[in-house]
Amino acid sequence: MSDFEERIVAGLRIRIDRTLCVGFGDCVTEAPEAFVLDDSGTAVFVTPDQVDRERLLRACDVCPVDAITVWDADGGQIVPGSL
Q1: Cβ atoms of residues 34 and 54 within 8 Å
Q2: Which residues make Cβ contacts (< 8 Å) with residue 19, sequence separation at least 6?
Q3: Would you say residue 83 has pLDDT above 80?
Q4: What architecture is the 4-78 domain classified under in CATH?
Q5: pLDDT tens digits, residue range 37-65?
Q6: Distance of alpha carbon 62 from its chain centroid, rounded?
Q7: Contact of 59 with 35, CB cutoff 8 Å
Q8: What is the 3-state secondary structure (H, E, C) of 24-55?
Q9: Which long-range contacts (CB under 8 A, 24 or more apart) does 15-20 make?
Q10: Which of 6, 36, 48, 73 is deepest in the core (most CB within 10 A)?
Q11: What value does the mean pLDDT of the chain take?
Q12: Separation of alpha carbons 20 and 78, rounded Å
């Protein structure tokens, strides 16, 4: 498996850096439809397109180690940072 997992959802490019994720699971708590922890305790996507945009952004932003990065359609970084 790659060090990065990336999806385009609702015009957002969302990337999980598997090397940074330590499995706190805050993203899973916020949006269990979007993320789960795999067998190694690392966050992976499930069905992020089933979560409304604001809740998805909150789920990405709660990561205490900034393992999830989000860019808007213009390439501007939203998470971590400007929420």
Answers
A1: no
A2: 3
A3: no
A4: 2-Layer Sandwich (3.30)
A5: 999 999 999 999 999 999 999 999 999 99
A6: 9
A7: yes
A8: CCHHHHHCCCCEEECCCCCEEECCHHHCCHHH
A9: 15/68, 15/69, 15/70, 16/42, 16/43, 16/44, 16/45, 16/67, 16/68, 17/67, 17/68, 17/69, 18/42, 18/43, 18/67, 20/65, 20/66, 20/67
A10: 48
A11: 95
A12: 18
Identify the pLDDT of residue 35: 98
* pLDDT at residue 8 tops 60: yes
Taking a C-beta distance cutoff of 8 angstroms, is the pair 3, 42 a contact?
no
Give the dihedral sign, CA 33/1/5/20. Answer: positive
Residue pointed to by tokens 């706190």: 24
**Six token digits for residue 44:** 């992976």
**Amino acid symbol at 18:** R
User: Whole-prediction pTM value?
Assistant: 0.93
